[in-house]
Amino acid sequence: MNSLSLSKETSPPAKRFKDLLQYSSRALHLVWSTSRSLALVFAVLTLAAGALPAGIAWVSQLIVDGVVAAMDQFKQSGEVLADPVMLYVLCEGILVILLAGCQRGISTCQALLRALLGQKISLMILEKAQQLTLTQFEDAEFYDKLLRARREASTRPLSLVTGTFGLLQNLISLGSYAVLLFQFSPWAVLILVSGGIPEFLSEAKFSGDKFRLFRRRTPETRMQMYLETVLAREDYAKEVKLFQLGPLLLGRYRDIFARIFSEDRALTLRRDCWGFALGLVSTAAFYGAYVWIAVSAISGALSLGQMTMYLLLFRQGQSAVSSCLKAISGMYEDNLYLSNLYEYLEQSIPEKQGGLRQGKKTGDGVRFENVTFTYPNAEEPALQDISFHLKPGESLALVGENGSGKTTLIKLLTRLYQPTNGRILLDDLDLQQWDAEALRQRIGVIFQDYGRYQFLVGENIGIGDVHHFADRQRWQQAAERGMAAEFIEKLPEGYDTQLGKWFNRGRELSGGQWQKIALSRAFMRADADILVLDEPTATMDAAAETAVFEHFRRLSQGKMNILISHRFSTVRKFDQILVFDNGRIIEHGRHEQLMKMDGKYAFLFSLQAAGYLEDA
Ligand SMILES: Nc1ncnc2c1ncn2[C@@H]1O[C@H](COP(=O)(O)OP(=O)(O)OP(=O)(O)O)[C@@H](O)[C@H]1O
């Protein structure tokens, strides 16, 4: 639980009220910046809707008294004097129409603002996500914040503003009722207001309980959402069916729901029982006042019209008091939820790294100097004391067992993470000092777990370089280099074929075809001088693999090529081979040198060669 909500839960009422106002003003500002004209119309209509009911009650008194006077007149003179009453009825009709118009207008404004605000906040959340680091994304607590912000916060600002305006509207109504009721008795005003307070206190307490429940179970909600994804998405469907995971996962899903529901049920029951019991206080207050007003009318202290008006005022006043108090407790709840949004939006962004677009020694290439790296929350370093120098025109292969640190090295080179110790230099300039855009433009990289985007085939290649995202000529060149052109041209709509099953006419590709698309993506960055391929041919057939490496070597002359591969036959021609074991480089050299060493590389190479011979 964070300090913000803790402070809210333990702070004194005055401070809480101040926080409430702070978030209300932030929410108002958000709505104002979303659409000034709608916010203005909303405000004006709310004020009008607040003042009109008292006017209607007042006119209804005039009608009743007018009828009574006309009845007297009729008894005395036999003359029907209906004109003033008709006029009052007409006035009341007009006021009622105006009120209905205001209420309709308010709900129209709310609907429009809700749509605009939902979009604005979603964008704010997604834009913020672009500024965060990979480390933040991999942090479970951060994910909880993101989820909480996304789940509720898009509706809460409008709800807070609606609550604020609603409160204002009801306060205006209440003020105008109080002025009229005051003429009857100041005590009546006091009874009116105090009758609703117990219910309000219970509402406020249960809103806080509900919010705390919501925060505490975010990890469970996240698991539920994850299970929904696994159970209902096409990329998991195969395994879910074949491993018969459905019942197991559904069981987990049900268990989580049952736990959540039992907590919710208990809270809802407590909230409603208390709400009902304390609501009786205001009902008792109303009927007490009813008797009082009726007795006053019987004893002649009030006219029939006044009695009708006061009863109306009292009933409407009570509903205005309860609306005011509900609005305040609703605002309190919205405010708690809104703190999630701001907690996420105010998440600190790592300091902007360097702004240099050129190294001190152009052409020096990449240097790792005693680099050690430990993942956040990990105990053991994933890389230890790594040093090597790769010059332009050279190729580098990284080999080693699973989990030995090869991909981690690439993540450091691409500055997705920072070394814990040591430094990485490009053209003799520390990576941290490079401008992010300039650095990323120099590196073309395809990871093992590349994205399979449900876009057009061409766009899936274009993703490799956003500056040329829609450049068809570049798509084709890149596809030829990545060995994808041949199969793409055979697709019915060529580069315009929609991929994936989420959209109409979407096609699925084979694993090897997807890998060719990913490879082509790497070749989109024609200007990049560091090309990194992380196991790029694992799912390709032998012919395609040979051709890819032929291309890779030919096209990347003068560039720095880095390849991670488990196939030793593909790395033997590389200028440098780094053999990794448990995060360290245990052997380093060319194929011939490593074979002579007769160490791990030589052992694994011979093992694979023997395997090939056996297969043959
Ligand atoms: N995001 C992460 N957070 C924490 N630990 C990680 C993360 N990614 C990888 N690791 C750990 O770091 C170590 C090195 O992983 P890395 O992915 O670099 O291995 P690799 O040599 O590329 O393996 P493979 O050949 O299987 O691709 C492993 O022990 C792995 O569990």
TrEMBL record:
Q: Tell me, in one coarse class, where this protein mainly resides.
A: membrane
**Protein origin, superkingdom:** Bacteria
SMART domains linked to this entry: AAA (SM00382)
Looking at the record, the residues that make up the ABC transmembrane type-1 domain are 40-333
Offer an example of a GO molecular function term for this protein.
ABC-type oligopeptide transporter activity
Q: Where in the cell is it found?
A: Cell membrane
Q: How does it sit in the membrane?
A: Multi-pass membrane protein
Q: Which residues cross the membrane?
A: 38-64, 84-102, 158-178, 184-202, 273-293
Return any one Pfam family short name.
ABC_tran
Give every ABC transporter domain span.
Answer: 366-607
Protein name, per record:
ATP-binding cassette, subfamily B
Q: Which organism is it from?
A: Malonomonas rubra DSM 5091
Species lineage: Bacteria, Pseudomonadati, Thermodesulfobacteriota, Desulfuromonadia, Desulfuromonadales
